[in-house]
Design the sequence.
């Protein structure tokens, strides 16, 4: 079992005006938090 260490964050899902997932905005959000020092992101799906 892998031991999780460091900071992880939950991101809000970015959507386009037509209701699709805004992949460019999501990529930018992930890059931003990784540059800030988090170890990973937690994707929640509901």
Sequence:
């Amino acid at each position: 079992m892998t031991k999780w260490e460091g900071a992880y964050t939950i991101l809000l899902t970015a959507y386009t005006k037509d209701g699709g997932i805004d992949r460019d905005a999501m990529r930018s959000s992930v890059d931003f938090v990784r540059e800030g020092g988090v170890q990973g992101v937690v994707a929640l799906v509901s």
Summary: The mean pLDDT is 89. The chain is about 30% helix and 15% strand.
